[in-house]
């Protein structure tokens, strides 16, 4: 399909436009007119007799191809155009469009080694500053949490029990199935791997020691914390982030309530209650996993398993695991809420803050666990 | 003149609540139609039905002779949502380029220039191009969203409360821009509004949603109407200045 016939004679050129000059046809039109040059032209006539439609994009293109003439002071003469088409062309011609050429040259992509180096160093530095600021904010948040907790202890009437119970249900009760399943499977896998190695020394009975001790001391609470960080830490960040964007947080503030009290405190208290309880669930199902494994693969009876378990694990082992739970809960809760409340701008930022909350809380949980391990080992517990 | 939009016997119902009970109206090329109605009379529902976002219980909507429930990809219309609905993870230029990239085979450079042209067409400074929607003021957001709606030069624009939340000069500027675009580009506009200024200054006809029906007419027709809601709407305290019309 032809969009334009060009008729050149001496110093004059006539462009007869035809068909539908729209944004959809523009690639075709460009292809057709790509070789068009105006050399030594004094007069340009545009004929729009057969032009059926004409939109702003086509007008822009027409203006662009005529711009060399325009600069030379030659105005196109427009013949037989419909009124509407002339209006569109005038409107677009009168826009203060910046010159495309100049703009194009500004975008240069050259690879300079020192720029890359600087980029890396500056990026690293910026990241460190960011981490440092996050850390300061976290400590501030922790302080604010303690202050409002102390206030609530003296005025427990204003404690939002309903909200806390709601969040315990969300964080704790709804997570029981998945955490039970995970603890069971991990205990089973650990038993399997352990027994395989211990067989070589004919010491498969120690498989029970291995599973029971590692579940009680480490794995039970760690699986729970990681799961809760993924389930609830992310939920905190996303909920609070969305509320922040929606100006709900500001609305609370204007109504004289502290967002910290209304939004953050119930969540952190709820996670503080739910996580230790979930840890007990994980411990229980971990033991069950250990038992199922040792009875089905190693052939121990119920009584044998229990008596061996009582020999190796006293209540202290259980407490070692359990006392870490509140610490992990606070880390997850604070990081989740803090990241959420820092969201600003757009939906994308909420997503970004949610990722940061999950990554940071899992990272902090593992670091804290390592520190606990070292301290407890030094203390000989 | 052949109508651009033909709505025939449109019925919308939610559960037992009938919102529209057999609407019939036409919108012609190059005219600006304002839609008014009390809260809950289904102004937005009507807009969503016409652009095919919502399926009516019965009735048909034809735009340029095409049934909208069948031809959704025709790019005959652009919609300016109330809060702009700009994609928050894209810059203004990228927002405007979106449809150009998806629906045409233009080169990246052309698309960029066309997007810049649209930015200037709606009266935004070129410096707004690389900004993200969260960095724009309310008026700029509306203009950027309008530029996006105009990306493929639709034949009709749907506007949902275009001047809501803008200060008086900004609202007036936006009204002027819409009228200007209608006059120059020959498009039609279907706009939900509560702005009495917009109604009197840029609308050719006004559609009133009332008692589950629609009343189309010029402002003068409506001013003469004796229906109590219309009386209150056009002769209430807020409309006093309109007595002059």
Question: Which helices and strands appear, and what pairs or packs with what?
Answer:
The complex is a heterodimer of chains A (381) and B (245).
Chain A: E1 4-9, E2 12-21, H1 26-33, E3 43-54, H2 56-71, E4 77-79, H3 83-93, H4 100-106, H5 113-154, H6 161-171, H7 176-198, H8 206-245, H9 248-254, H10 259-296, H11 302-312, H12 315-322, H13 324-341, H14 347-379
Parallel strand pairs in A: 2-3, 3-4
Antiparallel strand pairs in A: 1-2
Helix pairs in contact in A: 2-3, 5-10, 6-10, 7-8, 7-10, 8-10, 8-11, 8-12, 8-13, 8-14, 10-13, 13-14
Chain B: E1 5-14, E2 17-27, E3 32-37, H1 43-50, E4 58-63, E5 66-67, E6 77-80, H2 92-103, H3 108-121, H4 138-149, E7 156-160, H5 168-185, E8 188-192, H6 196-202, E9 205-210, E10 213-217, H7 219-224, H8 228-235
Parallel strand pairs in B: 3-8, 3-9, 6-7, 7-8
Antiparallel strand pairs in B: 1-2, 1-4, 4-5, 9-10
Helix pairs in contact in B: 2-3, 2-4, 3-4, 5-6
Distance between the termini of chain A: 87 Å
| CATH homology superfamily name of the domain at 1-46 and 54-75 and 196-245 in chain B | P-loop containing nucleotide triphosphate hydrolases
Strand order of the largest sheet of chain B: 6-7-8-3-9-10
Counted by DSSP, the helix tally of chain B is: 8
Compute the number of structural domains of chain A.
3
Low-confidence stretches of chain A: 100-107
DSSP, total strands of chain A? 4
What spatial form of chain A do the alpha-carbon principal axes imply? elongated
Number of contiguous helices of chain A: 14
